[in-house]
Specification:
The chain is mainly α. Strands 1-2 form a two-stranded antiparallel sheet. β1 and β2 form a beta hairpin. The chain is globular.
Length: 177
C-alpha cells in the first residue's frame, strides 16, 4: 500500500507523520492544569462528604430540588455564624465557614483552612487593593510578598494532595490523613 505524501510546499504536513513514526503513534495523555486538578479533587471530596450525609451532590449547572437546596447548601458551605472573616483595604469584608464539606475539603487539600482563607482572599484581591490605594500593583505585590509565598506553598501542597485524592479509589479521597 502506498501512502500519499504531502507536496514539498506543505512540508509541515510531514511533521505529524514523522512524529507518529518515531513515537509509535502514541500520544501522551494531556496533563490537567493545577487549577483543574485542585478543582476536581475539591469536587470529589465535597461530593463524598455530601453523600455520607445522605445528600445527592448537585451536578454542575443544575440546581438541587427545592426541598433539598437548603440542606445541601448548609452541608456544603456550613451554617450558623461565620468563623472566618477578613476586612480588605477596600473596606469589603469576606467571610467563610470552617464547617461544611467545602471547609473539610480545603483543610484536607491546603492543610490549614484558616491560613488558606486569609492568603487566598488577600492574593485574589491584590488588584482591587492597588486600585483602591492608588498604588502600582507591583508595589502592592511587594508589600504582600509573605502572603504570596504562603499562597504558592499552600497551592503546591494542595496540588500534591489533589493528585493523591484523585488517584485513590472512589469515596476514599475524603478520609483524613
Amino acid at each position: 500500500m502506498r501512502i500519499p505524501l504531502p507536496s514539498p510546499r506543505s512540508a509541515a504536513g510531514l511533521l505529524p507523520l514523522l512524529g507518529c513514526l518515531l513515537t509509535g503513534c502514541s500520544a501522551a495523555a494531556p496533563v490537567p492544569a493545577p487549577d483543574e486538578t485542585i478543582k476536581a479533587a475539591t469536587r470529589a471530596l465535597t461530593d463524598a462528604c455530601l453523600m455520607r450525609q445522605g445528600l445527592t451532590p448537585p451536578h454542575p449547572g443544575e440546581s438541587p430540588p427545592p426541598t433539598d437546596e437548603q440542606q445541601i447548601t448548609a452541608a456544603l458551605f456550613g451554617k450558623g455564624p461565620t468563623e472566618l472573616s477578613l476586612t480588605l483595604p477596600t473596606g469589603y469584608v469576606v467571610r467563610a465557614h470552617t464547617d461544611g464539606c467545602l471547609g473539610a475539603a480545603q483543610q484536607r487539600l491546603y492543610g490549614d483552612q484558616r491560613r488558606w482563607f486569609r492568603v487566598s482572599v488577600i492574593v485574589n484581591n491584590l488588584e482591587a487593593e492597588a486600585s483602591h490605594t492608588h498604588r502600582p500593583l507591583s508595589e502592592v505585590r511587594d508589600r504582600h510578598r509573605a502572603d504570596l509565598a504562603d499562597w504558592h506553598r499552600m497551592r503546591t501542597r494542595a496540588l500534591s494532595e489533589a493528585t493523591t485524592v484523585l488517584n485513590q479509589p472512589p469515596f476514599q479521597g475524603d478520609m483524613p490523613r
